[in-house]
Amino acid sequence: MRWTLKPKPETSKVETLKNALQVDDVVATLLLQRGIETFEEAKTFFRPSFEDLHNPYLMKDMDKAVTRIEQAIAEGENILVYGDYDVDGTTSVALMSSYLKTRTANVATYIPDRYDEGYGVSYQGIDFADDNGFSLIIALDCGIKAIEKVAYAKEKGIDFIICDHHRPGDEIPDAVAVLDPKRDDCEYPFKELCGCGVGFKLVTALASNQGQTVEDLTEYLDLVATAIGADIVPIVGENRALAYFGLEVINSNPRPGMKAIIAEVKKDKLTITDVVFIIAPRINAAGRMKHGNHAVTLLTEIDFNLAASYAVDIDQFNTDRRETDQQITEEALVQIEKNNEQERFTTVVYDKNWHKGVIGIVASRLTETYYRPTLVFTKSGDKLAASARSVKGFDVYNALEACGEFIEQFGGHKYAAGLTLLPENYEAFKAKFEAVVKETVDPKLLTPELKIDLEINLNQIDDKLMRIIRQFAPFGPGNMTPVFMTQGIQDTGWGKCVGEGDKHLRFTGMQANSNSIVCIGFGLGDKLELIKDKKPFDAAYTIDENHWNGNVSLQLKLKDIKA
């Protein structure tokens, strides 16, 4: 792992902010690294407010979307709320359908089948709408590339409103309205909303017609915060405010479906990290193992007892998912070794029997072992489907675009994408993808990077610093938990390996002139030799709290140590 120390802000800026906020150098530096330079910016950061949210009508086509939906409500048209089967899609559908049902009874939901229909808007979904008398489809977290499908719907007299956040292609679908802040011609000030965030902006615009404000819509923010966490969008700007208030809802008054999931996992106060690792995988598991409809049913249920029974099912899907992805990951690692592909610039693996619902997770797991752009393929009908994952700093979307001659269709982001291709093109694609990455990747990106905010001494760590760092939350891309580095730490003599298979490292560390502090390094058991015999070493860590028997003490959560 390579350690990279973030650049230090100018001393004059640190002094100015320090004096304005009455904080120490450490806090002022952390804020400046996050682009916060003034008292006002700090106030916005530490005290998120609904006033930080932009007017939804700044988004291109918002007026058209609202006009068409109001017309549908007024005329009693049937509205189909359509969304993808992942967390962002299912939370978007739950949000939009829940809101619309407060205005009209003529609302139904549709989640495509991951296996029969694949990602995004499908012809089957449009046929379903046609067969059942729906004249308006609101597509969420998908649709920005559905040129032919939207045209097909139009032929059948069905209008489309698209709420997406993925990168558009060269052409925008011919829908009534296309809401996507990433459109080149959209001047919406914040470009990093998730699909559920775009859906929430549409709900905000619709509600404003009824004299409601954002404060009247907080009940939907548990869904928005979950989507923000799961979709790994930057938790800055509008997303920070939405995640902040969404977490408040999750922890104080979540919808019955969320409450039921939280009851299953028996956790008290949830952070955005808990949302990512506890709530999101369960919602996702429905679409991976069974059908995304199960997630929407859970998230829209208003009876807690019913929601609780659905949550038990969802929990089981998640257990099945975990077992399946572990098994496939092991098989993929064997395949890489068997083909002598350990030293390549990419990982591309395929097995026709692998479960399509977990190949994205497997791709993520493989990047933990071989840190490089990764694709996991399986059979999907008469084609091969893959999930792509990248490494920090490398745009896998662009790399796939360069292999376009072999791909049937693809979509996604810089770090994650999905694609399909014909079986006969697999080997040629695999060779081309390897060549493209080899040619374009900076080799240092293939070694995991640990970004360190600041070097400090152990005696600078105290309860006051911890209290302020807690207020930096919610953490996520664009505002990660601060990582510190300290040189010349020594173990007081009690260092040992703990946990199953001695995987983890635990010791009490101190520096000259500092108090001792407990340090825990998960997965760092193999570094025990570095700390033995009171040899000095450097540590990179986050500051954490240890709750034990009613006592709370500070501890360091180690990221890495070096001699």
Write down the overall mean pLDDT: 94
Helix content: 40-55%
Content of β-strand = 15-25%
SS-derived structural category = alpha/beta
Count of alpha/pi helices: 19
Radius of gyration: 25 Å
- Identify the overall geometry: globular
Report on the architecture of this protein.
- The chain has 563 residues and is of the alpha/beta class.
- Helices cover 41% and strands 20% of the residues.
- It contains 19 helices and 19 strands.
- The chain has helices spanning 11-21, 25-33, 39-46, 62-74, 87-100, 123-131, 147-155, 195-208, 221-230, 237-252, 256-265, 272-290, 293-300, 304-338, 359-369, 396-401, 426-440, 463-470, 528-531, and strands at residues 2-5, 78-83, 107-110, 134-140, 159-163, 177-179, 347-350, 374-380, 383-389, 409-412, 416-421, 449-452, 454-455, 484-491, 496-498, 504-510, 517-521, 537-548, 551-562.
- The protein has a five-stranded parallel beta sheet, with helices on both faces.
- Helix 7 (147-155) links the parallel strand 4 (134-140) and strand 5 (159-163).
- Helix 5 runs parallel beside helix 8 (195-208), helix 5 crosses helix 13 (293-300) and helix 9 packs across helix 10.
- The longest helix has 35 residues, at 304-338.
- The protein is globular.
- It starts with a strand and ends with a strand.
